[in-house]
Specification:
By secondary structure, this protein is of the alpha/beta class. The chain has three helices and seven strands. Strands 5-4-3-7-6 form a five-stranded mixed beta sheet. The protein has a two-stranded parallel sheet with strand order 1-2.
Length: 158
Amino acid sequence: MDKEPITLNGLNKLKEELVFLKEKKRPEIVAAIAEARSHGDLKENAEYHAAKEEQSHNEGRITEINDIIARANVIDVTKLNNEGKVIFGSTVFLEDLDTGEKINYKIVGRDEADLKQKLIFFQSPIGKGLIGKNKSDLVEIITPSGVKNFEIKDVQYI
């Protein structure tokens, strides 16, 4: 069972989701199943089948979160030496040398990655291309949409 790196924030979000699923969602689904059962014939009872399917999804997600937490290797970057090196959990401030656009990414684990939130998976092309580099480095990264050229303007451990 491989350890999976995760940030402290990512672990806390998973724990919050787990509490919600177990303490709020699970009882709601059980109540919906009981309500649907009271309507009689289960073979043609769409509410019952929908509630059972939702229960299956909910329990699956609970199992998945428990597994992620069991394999979590929490990395708290605020406790590491800040030497300008891009590492797991650091926030990287970049300038796209082709467009002049300034962008920043936080490098995170698989379960935290969300491009809309500027959270990128450390094994993604950009994540792999940045890890190990330093502030002021020029970086060329091959992405599915083509070659990107960046300058690392700053690296923060927040």
